[in-house]
Amino acid sequence: MELTTIWFLIVGVMLIGYFVLDGFDFGVGISLPILGRDDTDRRVIINTIGPVWDLNETWLIVAGASLFAAFPEWYATMFSGFYLALLLILVALILRGVSFEYRHLGRGREWTRWFDQFIFWGSVLPPLLWGVAFANLAQGLPIRPMEGGGWIYEGTLLTLLNPYALLGGVTMLLIVWVHGLVFISLKTVGEMRDRARSLAKKVGTAAIAAGAAFLLWTVLQHLDSEALWVIVLCAVMAALGLIGAWAANAVGREGWAFTGNAAAIVFALLAVFMSMFPNLMHSSIDPSYSMSIAGAASSQKTLELMTWVAVFMMPLVIAYQAWTYWVFRKRLSRDLIPAAAH
Questions:
Q1: CA separation (Å) from 67 to 70, 71, 294?
Q2: Domain boundaries, the chain
Q3: Which NCBIfam families match (predicted)?
Q4: For 115-172, what is each residue's pLDDT tens digit?
Q5: What is the pTM of this model?
Q6: Coil, strand, or helix at residue 328?
Q7: What does the alpha-carbon distance between residue 168 and residue 267 come to, in Å, rounded to a whole number?
Q8: 34 with 199: CB under 8 angstroms?
């Protein structure tokens, strides 16, 4: 297998890892004003991800850096085409991160309320916009090669907001929301756990419906693809993951429900990536204008150096993250929240 293909897979794995891990962070943030009946409830909800949210977010940084180094043309074209959407994502992530650190300073109820709103909207916008972006990558974009090299995006913001992409955004939002609700029920006890399970059942039903529509639409758009059978297999596995997670949550098996939701995210994104393969970006203007993996890749020397770094560093990062989750594995309750935290 060529290094260009290997790095396409590595970048894909990093992005999938980001959405699986930071996905439940987003779901927890979305649930904050809905499940949090008072400040103690909201403190419990935030503390479920308090020790890990920033570590989960580093997967996006590493994925972005790898994308820039391995496929600079893909990075440049995608970031110029999705400029406004990515800017909104960045602002939302900054506001969310700041709010986790500043809401507990205790400067009044209005102070806390504002930061809770930032956490909510900073958790809603990223998965919605990421879903729109990845759906557009799967569908194809109006790009063409330039005379001096590289590709240029010829669409507008409205081009990105097409029905298929919006469905992709809503689907991603619903899936990460139920992913976060299941994580809350996995990390809490008592009434909070019960309320999270109950809401996860309702949101999960909507996620199954939206996910089925999006995956079916994705398959129908790529009937002539060389990887059709892989796309269909990934779509079926994603659907089974969502349905299995819903059933596991209904009987109180939060661990299996969380695993099912994670599997659904993995296979749904694999379906998107395989719909792009063997290109990085399909051109809706002319198929011959599409950006190939080899055409957008860095030099062989660069990819070789990056491969050696990844071989040594990735196992250490994964091991450290697994250890972190093991250390903070215990469930939380209202009794563990000190009065000073209010």
A1: 5, 5, 14
A2: 3-341
A3: cydB
A4: 999 999 999 999 999 999 999 998 889 988 887 778 888 888 888 899 999 999 999 9
A5: 0.90
A6: coil
A7: 14
A8: yes
